[in-house]
Amino acid sequence: MEFFSIMLQVWERYWSLFLEGLGMTVYMGLVTVFISTISGSLMALLRRSNWGIGKVKPFRAIATAYVEIIRGTPILLQLYFFYFMLPQWLPFLNLSEFTCVMVACCVNSTAYVCEIVRAGIQAVDIGQTEAARSLGLNSRQTMLNIVLPQAVKNILPALCNEFVAIVKETSLASTFFIGELMTQFKTIQGITFRVLEPLTIIGIIYFLLTFILSKLIALLERRLSASER
Q1: Are the beta carbons of 179 and 26 closer than 8 angstroms?
Q2: What is the mean pLDDT of the chain?
Q3: How crowded is the C-beta side of 131, counted as CA atoms within 13 Å?
Q4: Cα–Cα distance, 208 to 200 (Å, whole number)
Q5: CA 81 to each of CA 10, 53, 74: distance values in angstroms, whole numbers, following the listed order
Q6: At residue 111, does pLDDT exceed 90?
Q7: The pTM is what?
Q8: Using CA atoms, how far apart are residues 18 and 15, in angstroms rounded to an integer?
Q9: Does 107 have pLDDT greater than 70?
Q10: Is the pLDDT score of 33 beyond 60?
Q11: What is the C-alpha separation between 201 and 182, in angstroms, rounded?
């Protein structure tokens, strides 16, 4: 009972810090998903398309190498890399710590979104493409008007799951004291000298956040399944 009593006291005293961390976590997740969805989709088209710069093999090779390197290395390594390297590469921009961390998150998520979109495109029946070609549509028209609309419906649940994963991965940003949930835990732990109680509150917040997102994803999947009937 003492544990729960102390945990309640920690919440009553520092609830504003917990909510501030929650807001930063959600903000980082939304920005990362928005940017990586656009960049990942473009990269997937680059890897799959035979129109535009997708026809140029070196570009496709670079895109493939990018995806493999990012997916083959830990996100924490990427965070450190961009955190320390971006200010050296672009000193004239005076990039903030938050910007460097967000760049790393977006770069990481882009590779995974690329593979999600690419899988969605591949899942579209090739007969759809052949039918479009027989009607006189070129490769670009077929991709934009036939393939992509169907692929989007296929990949929406996976993209939502990626958002859930990103929300949890933002906890790694606490390494650089960005201000998300785990950073607030370090702050509160330093003030109260308590570890388990604030950490439990953080865990509950993460669970509730991801649980709500998971339920929304399940609702979306049911709606999509119903629309296909």
Answers
A1: no
A2: 85
A3: 8
A4: 12
A5: 35, 29, 11
A6: yes
A7: 0.84
A8: 5
A9: yes
A10: yes
A11: 11
